Amino acid sequence: MASAARRSRASRRHALVACLAPMLVRGAAPGSTRYALRVAYDGTRFKGWQVQPGGARTVQGELNAALRTRFGGADIPTLGASRTDAGVHARGQCAHADLPVAPLGGAPLELLEHQINRLLPDDARVHDLRPAPAPKPWQAREGLPWHAIANAAGKRYAYRLTARRGSADPLGRLYRGHVAYRDVDFGRLDDALSCFVGEHDFAAFANNAPGLDPSGAARSTTRAIRSATLLDEGGGDATLTFELDGALYKMVRNVVGAAVAVADGALPRDAIPALLAPGARRADNPAKAAPACGLCLEEVYYDDY
C-alpha cells in the first residue's frame, strides 16, 4: 500500500513537471548551472508567487527581475515548488534557477545571496542558495536535472487563526485569519481535522477545475495529508499545521474553512467524509475558504536539500 502511494506521488510529480515547466525540465543551458534556493516572503502585497499577465506584482516576478539585474540583463526564469496565491506567506518556499557560471567569478554564494537580496524588495528574501543536488536515477536516465517540483518529498503549511468575538488584534491582522466572530470549539475543530488525514480526493476542496495535462489525461485531484495538528494558543487563537505531499489550488484554506464550519456548528462532521468521496466537487462544499493572510508555507521537504 505504501509503495503504491509512493508510485502514485512520483507519477503525479513527473506529470506536473511536464505540464508546468517544459522549458525548465531539460538540463541547464550551456554555460549555466542549476541552483536551488529558499525564498521567504510576506505575501500581503503580492498577487501570489507565479508571474501573471498584466504585470501584477508577484514574488516570482520580483525574483526574476532581481536576477536579470544581477546578471546583466540575462533572462533567468525561476520555478517555485509551490504556487502560493495572493496574500499567502512563505518562510520555506523553494525554487530553482539556471545561473550563468561566468558572472559568478568565483565569488562565494553568500555574497551572491547578499547581492540578490539588495535587489529584492523588503518583503522578499532569498537564503540557502546552493548548487542543485544531483538528479535522481529516474531523472538521470532521461537526461533531466534536479527540479524544485519533481524532487519535492512533501510540504508543511501552518494556518494561524483567531476566533475572537471582537475585532482581530491589529498587530496580527496581516498574519492571522479571523475565521469566526463566535465561539469555536477547538476540540471539535481538532476532531474535524482528523477527517482529512490520509489520501483522499480533494476535488471538493479545490477552487479550480482539474483540467487536462498535455497528454489529454485528466489531472488527479488525489492528495495525501500526512498529519493535521492543532495548537491552542489561548484567547481564541490557534495554529493548525499540515504535513502533506502536495496541495491543490486553495486546498489548505478550504480544508481550514470546512473544519471551522464543523467546529462552530455550521457544517455537520459527517459532511466531511462525503466531500472527500470520489465525485464530490467544490460546488458541493458550502464552507468558505479561510482568509489567505493566515496561511504560510513553512517548508518544502527534499531528501537531498
Automatic annotation (TrEMBL):
<dbReference type="InterPro" id="IPR020094">
    <property type="entry name" value="TruA/RsuA/RluB/E/F_N"/>
</dbReference>
<comment type="similarity">
    <text>Belongs to the tRNA pseudouridine synthase TruA family.</text>
</comment>
<dbReference type="InterPro" id="IPR020103">
    <property type="entry name" value="PsdUridine_synth_cat_dom_sf"/>
</dbReference>
<dbReference type="InterPro" id="IPR020097">
    <property type="entry name" value="PsdUridine_synth_TruA_a/b_dom"/>
</dbReference>
<feature type="active site" description="Nucleophile">
    <location>
        <position position="85"/>
    </location>
</feature>
<feature type="binding site">
    <location>
        <position position="157"/>
    </location>
    <ligand>
        <name>substrate</name>
    </ligand>
</feature>
<feature type="signal peptide">
    <location>
        <begin position="1"/>
        <end position="30"/>
    </location>
</feature>
<protein>
    <recommendedName>
        <fullName>tRNA pseudouridine synthase</fullName>
        <ecNumber>5.4.99.12</ecNumber>
    </recommendedName>
</protein>
<dbReference type="Pfam" id="PF01416">
    <property type="entry name" value="PseudoU_synth_1"/>
</dbReference>
<dbReference type="GO" id="GO:0031119">
    <property type="term" value="P:tRNA pseudouridine synthesis"/>
</dbReference>
<dbReference type="InterPro" id="IPR020095">
    <property type="entry name" value="PsdUridine_synth_TruA_C"/>
</dbReference>
<dbReference type="InterPro" id="IPR001406">
    <property type="entry name" value="PsdUridine_synth_TruA"/>
</dbReference>
<dbReference type="GO" id="GO:0003723">
    <property type="term" value="F:RNA binding"/>
</dbReference>
<keyword id="KW-0819">tRNA processing</keyword>
<dbReference type="GO" id="GO:0160147">
    <property type="term" value="F:tRNA pseudouridine(38-40) synthase activity"/>
</dbReference>
<feature type="domain" description="Pseudouridine synthase I TruA alpha/beta">
    <location>
        <begin position="195"/>
        <end position="303"/>
    </location>
</feature>
<keyword id="KW-0413">Isomerase</keyword>
<keyword id="KW-0732">Signal</keyword>
